[in-house]
Amino acid sequence: MQLDSPTTLDLFNASPSVPRDLLVWQHAIACLRAGIPVSLLLVVSSSGSSPGRQGFKMSVAPGSMVGSIGGGIMEHKFVELARHGLADGRREVLLREQVHRGEAPHNRSGMICSGQQTLLLLPLHEDHLPTLRFVADALQHHHPAWLRCTARGELQAAAGAPPRAPGLHRPADDAADAWQYVEMLGFRDQLTIVGGGHVGLALSQVVAHLDFRLTVLDDRSGLNTLQLNPYAHDKRTVDYGVLGQAIADGPHQYVVVMTFGYRTDGVALRQLLGRPFAYLGVMGSAAKITTMRRELRAEGYPEAQLARVHAPIGLPIHSRTPEEIAISVAAELIRVRNAPRG
């Protein structure tokens, strides 16, 4: 790679992605500072084939809007509802169920995708500005923080872990004025790419648009494709023999192994097998993966652990170049992340 090539220049001009919500909060702040009325639209719960999952949000002003709550006729309807409220000076907080089935007896959204959502419409005002600024700063600098909205129109945000589990909380008597919604700020999902080579760099570029917090690890010091990777929020040189200590597990942790070769893939994978990741995958040809699985079985690794490994990774689209492989892997990550939960 020549230092004056367009690809390299583009890499230097790029930067790690920020959570998609940041622009929503920045738009709301700019509107309030300019004296323009603005409301927040927020998906506080979702199930089934809903067009926008919990946490999707928009800021809506009379002549502008940023973000999305899922698109389609439902989004258009709520944008118009928000704008009519702003024009009339209405300040009430609305919590509305939306059912995406044409035969539903109540709360039909106008869509027929069969899911269901609960949407919040919150008119914002100057008293909210300190909280909005805190939220935008936390998102921009990737500080762990949380947000709370209440039926009375309160917005609260603070650093660290939230006082209760994220989600929509209703009282036992379902009192309309006593619900509250809690959300963790920033990236929900974390992707770790083990291997900072050409495919790792290409995958980083694709994933930068997919709302993952991205870490890239490699055991080679001075690797140019790792050093020049501008998309990762974190990039480090790590001995694959202690890789397990460098990667957290959990329901929002995704790991892709694509190291320099077969031996290092095996070292890395042995550090990760059996841990509760949302996704664990290994790049390689079908022949390579067959050999790897045979060796791991011979070493006594349980079949149940091996079955949880996505290998070869990526959707089968006959990809060959690093960029094509990156797209196939990103598509598989999306499929796993958005799969219905039982």
TrEMBL record:
Domain XdhC- CoxI: 31-94
Organism (species): Hymenobacter edaphi
Signal peptide positions (record): none
Top-rank taxon, per record: Bacteria
The protein's name in its UniProt record: XdhC/CoxI family protein
Transmembrane annotation, as ranges: none
Pfam families reported for this sequence: XdhC_C, XdhC_CoxI
PANTHER family, per the entry: ALDEHYDE OXIDOREDUCTASE MOLYBDENUM COFACTOR ASSEMBLY PROTEIN, XANTHINE DEHYDROGENASE SUBUNIT A-RELATED
Domain XdhC Rossmann: from-to ranges: 191-333
Gene3D superfamilies: NAD(P)-binding Rossmann-like Domain
